[in-house]
Amino acid sequence: MASPLPVTLDDVRAAAARIAGAVVHTPCLHSKTLSRIASADIWIKFENLQFTASFKERGALNTLLQLSDEERKRGVIAMSAGNHAQGVAYHAGRLGIPATIVMPSFTPNTKVKHTRDHGARVVLLGDTLAEAAAEAHRVAAAEKLVFVHPYDDPRVIAGQGTIALEMLQDVPELDTLVVPVGGGGMIAGCAVAARGLKPDLKVIGVESAGYSAMRQLLAGESVTAGGDTIAEGIAVRDIGQTPLAIARALV
After folding, report:
1. CA atoms within 13 A on the CB side of 85
2. What are phi and psi of 234, to 5 degrees?
3. Which of 22, 126, 174, 208 is 20 to 30 A from 97, comparing alpha carbons?
4. Beta strand 176-180 with 202-206: parallel, antiparallel or unpaired?
C-alpha cells in the first residue's frame, strides 16, 4: 500500500478557510489571445493581484496562523530573495509576530525596502541562496525563532494549494493545470487540490531550462542546474523533499 501523502485535500480546504478574507480570491480569466495561439481554452490565474503581488502570501499566512502563542511571541524567520520574504513580513506584521528575513546580498534594493516596510528585520548575507539559508538556520537556532520554509513545509504547500481550489471553483471544466516550478511548493499544493477534486485532471510543471531540478529528480537523474535566466523567481536547484514526494505521486 502506498504511503499517505504529507498534504491532503482536507488540509488544503482547511487552509482556504483559515486564510479567507486575508488573501485575495484572485480572478481566473479567459485569455482570448493565448487561446487562439494554443488552439485551446486558456485561463489565467492573476496572483499578481495579491497585496504583495505574489501567491506566496497563501502558504506564509497558513503557516503563521498555526503557530502557538509561545511561537508567535518568539517570532519567525525566513530566507528569501523576494516574494516569500514579503509574504512572511507582511502577514507577520499584520498579526503582531516579530519577523526576521535573511536575504542574499544580491537581492534587489526594492525588494529589501518592501520587506523592511512591512516591519521585518532584514539581514543581508550570502552570495547564494544556500548561504543565506544557512545563516537563517543559524539565527533561528541562536534566537529560538520559528523557521518558515518557502516551500518544503506541509503548511506552506497546503496554503499554495488554495490556488487550485479557487481555479476549479471558478472554472470547474478545467482539465489541465500548467504550473511554474521553483522549489515545488505551489505545484505540490495545486496537484493535491486539483487531483483530489478531479482525479483525471493533468498537472504539468514548467521549469527554467537551466534549472530543471524537479524534472531531473523525477527522471532519476542527477541534478545539474545553474546559469542566467530571466525566470529568476523559479531558478531553484534544491527541490523540497515534501513537494518531490507529492510530485512523484500526482504530477
Report:
1. 30
2. -120, 20
3. 126
4. parallel
3-class secondary-structure state, position 229:
coil
Q: Looking at 76-90, 201-215, 231-245, which range is the least confident one? A: 231-245
Roughly what angle, to the nearest 10 degrees, separates helices 154-170 and 9-19?
A: 80
Phi-psi label, residue 172: left if phi above 0, alpha if psi -120 to 50, beta otherwise: alpha
Gap between the Cα atoms of 163 and 159, Å rounded: 8
Decide if 163 contacts 186 (C-beta within 8 A): yes
Q: Which three cell numbers stand for residue 48?
A: 499578481
Separation CA 63–CA 52 (nearest Å): 17
Q: Which single residue is written with the C-alpha cell 493545470?
A: 177
Per DSSP, 234 falls in state G
Each residue of 130-180: pLDDT tens digit?
Answer: 889 999 999 999 999 999 999 999 999 999 999 999 999 999 999 999 999
Report residue 144 as a C-alpha cell.
529560538
Nearest to 243 by CA among 175, 148, 158: 158
Q: Which domains does the chain have, with CATH numbers?
A: 9-52+153-250 (3.40.50.1100), 56-147 (3.40.50.1100)
The 3-state secondary structure of 9-59 reads: HHHHHHHHHHHECCECCCCEEECHHHHHHHCCCCEEECHHHCCCCCCHHHH
